[in-house]
Amino acid sequence: MGERGMPLLARLTSLVPTVLQPGTFARLRAVLFVLALLPLARLFFLGATSGLGANPVEFVIRSLGNWTLVALVVTLSVTPVRLATGWAWPMRLRRMFGLFTFFYAVLHLGAYLWLDRWFDVPAIWRDVLKRPYITLGFAAMTLLVPLAATSSNGWVRRLGARNWQRLHRLVYLTAVLAVAHFWWQKAAKNDVGEPLVYALVVGLLLGVRLLRLARQRYGSVDSSASRSSIVSRRRIS
């Protein structure tokens, strides 16, 4: 089959090698690292130029929360991208994206605790009890802590690869809680357009994983049953 007969995705992915050379990968990672810091640099720039709007505290908190969701979506996208393209190198970037998710989540929470509540513990506790979206946000942040703390190769060895993978599946629940946190906060203002986009994207990314799990489980069962049937027919004949 000629190049014209290739599917569009196959043609696009063929332009990028499956495995990147060490120097190329290092440069790509450096560029992505800098790009991931641009939202924070933008906030500093806007703060220095009085560009944070009429309610700068809310602007900072919301912006950091949005970029936490963006980083989380990028992290969850790594495996589907690998499955769709066959590229191996995105998997080596997943840890960095995950740590940036935690980084922006910490800044988001810190901005709320400091700029909005000035570390007033009773006021924060009232928010947790009375505002469901605050409760969901704290729950999502709590789940991110062990994921960030055990992201190193040393923890993979300590926990064992299988246990480490089980622990880091908490990121799926974290994503659901984070989207629900955003949705509930926006629903109070009758503005769920942006949360709906995140919900659809996260649902798609988690759906890819569920489909893959179903194929692995039931596909293996079907193949095992097929092999057993073939063996049985051979024995009968």
Explain what you see.
The protein is mainly α and 237 residues long. It is 81% helix and 0% strand. Helix 3 packs antiparallel against helix 4. The C terminus is likely disordered.
Question: What class would the helix/strand composition place it in?
Answer: mainly alpha
What is the N-to-C succession of helices and strands?
A: HHHHHHHHHH
Low-confidence stretches: 221-237
Q: Please count the beta strands (DSSP E, at least 2 residues each).
A: 0
What is the typical, i.e. mean, pLDDT? 86
Q: Roughly what fraction of the amino acids lie in strands?
A: under 5%
Shape: globular
Brief write-up:
This protein has 237 residues and is mainly α.
Please describe the topology of this protein:
Layout: H1 8-13, H2 22-48, H3 56-85, H4 94-116, H5 121-130, H6 132-149, H7 153-159, H8 161-168, H9 170-187, H10 193-236
Helix pairs in contact: 2-3, 3-4, 3-9, 3-10, 4-6, 5-6, 6-9, 7-8, 9-10
Features:
237 residues; mainly alpha; disordered C terminus
